[in-house]
């Protein structure tokens, strides 16, 4: 659910979110791991490992900023074009994360979902995903969605292929079909953050970002901190979201 921007602005970000807090969906294109590592004379894999640590910190910090859904772009379907060893390394990190963090997620009220294709993931990872999703299903504090082997265009295409069977045709029913395709839901993004200096969407959440606010940062993902997340949320809160209507000051 999206709340009015003025309500959002009044929330003290350092306090735990009260019941009436804004419930933001923040999506992050966590880019720059490879460049971060190369700049330090390290292999790209070290950048992905450092990036996974950043993800842990950000996930920990998100709920107290009024974020109820956090979607992180862990692996794009386009990333299969990279050397297999790099992609396998990223998938191994994900597997490690699921094994080490699932209990922590349960304790912290984090519900974990994977969005994207699963059929190309190793069977053991697929099982770990299913186990983590089942174990954390009751979490209500934060919905953590990791986009893995994810392509928004492909997801929309598959949803469109199923949509012809739906009798109640509406944008809402299309979103429902898309959520089924993704398995981890499909909710509107409020704030999209991209680290690493590029300013593009890279096939991420095309449908869900229709009215998202974008924040682009030069910082590479391993250097991103909870303070950076808070600053981005503050920036979001300063913006007026008109969704095509007139700004409040003009509308009167
Ligand atoms: C983002 O960092 C992580 C993934 C795509 C998995 P990159 O690996 O794209 O890092 P750069 O952009 O090459 O620095
Ligand atoms: Mg990149």
Question: How would you describe this structure to a colleague?
Answer:
This protein has 252 residues and is α/β, with parallel strands linked by helices. The chain has a domain of 175 residues: Decaprenyl diphosphate synthase-like (Undecaprenyl pyrophosphate synthetase, 3-Layer(aba) Sandwich), CATH 3.40.1180.10. 44% of the residues lie in helices and 15% in strands. It has nine helices and six strands; from the N terminus they run H-E-H-H-E-H-E-H-E-H-H-E-E-H-H. It has a six-stranded parallel β-sheet, with helices on both faces. Strand 3, helix 5 and strand 4 form a beta-alpha-beta unit. The protein is globular, with a radius of gyration of 18 Å. The chain starts with a helix and ends with a helix. Bound molecules: 3-methylbut-3-enyl trihydrogen diphosphate and magnesium ion. 3-methylbut-3-enyl trihydrogen diphosphate binds next to helix 2.
The overall pLDDT average reads: 90
As a whole number of angstroms, the C-alpha radius of gyration is 18 Å
Chemical compounds bound to the protein: 3-methylbut-3-enyl trihydrogen diphosphate, magnesium ion
How many strand units? 6
Number of helical regions: 9
Provide a quick synopsis of the model.
This protein is α/β, with parallel strands linked by helices and 252 residues long. It is built from 9 helices and 6 strands, in the order αβααβαβαβααββαα. A 6-stranded parallel β-sheet has the order 3-4-2-1-5-6, sandwiched between helices.
């Amino acid at each position: 659910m999206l709340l009015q921007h003025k309500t959002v602005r009044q929330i003290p970000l350092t306090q735990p979110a009260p019941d009436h807090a804004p419930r933001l969906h923040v999506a992050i294109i966590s880019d720059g791991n490879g460049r971060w590592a190369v700049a330090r004379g390290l292999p790209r894999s070290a950048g992905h490992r450092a990036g996974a640590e950043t993800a842990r910190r950000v996930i920990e910090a998100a709920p107290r900023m009024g974020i109820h859904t956090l979607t992180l772009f862990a692996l794009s379907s386009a990333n299969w074009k990279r050397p297999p060893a790099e992609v396998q390394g990223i998938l191994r990190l994900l597997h490690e994360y699921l094994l080490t963090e699932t209990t922590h997620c349960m304790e912290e009220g984090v519900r974990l979902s994977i969005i994207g294709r699963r059929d190309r993931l190793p069977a053991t990872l697929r099982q770990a995903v299913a186990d983590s999703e089942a174990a954390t299903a009751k979490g209500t504090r934060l919905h953590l969605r990791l986009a893995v082997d994810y392509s928004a265009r492909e997801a929309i295409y598959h949803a469109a292929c199923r949509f012809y069977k739906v009798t109640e045709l509406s944008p809402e029913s299309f979103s429902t079909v898309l959520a089924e395709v993704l398995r981890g839901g499909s909710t509107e993004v409020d704030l999209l953050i991209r680290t690493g200096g590029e300013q593009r969407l890279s096939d991420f959440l095309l449908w869900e970002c229709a009215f998202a606010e974008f924040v682009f940062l030069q910082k590479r993902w391993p250097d991103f901190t909870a303070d950076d997340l808070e600053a981005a949320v503050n920036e979001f809160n300063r913006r007026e979201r008109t969704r095509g209507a007139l700004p409040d000051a003009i509308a009167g």
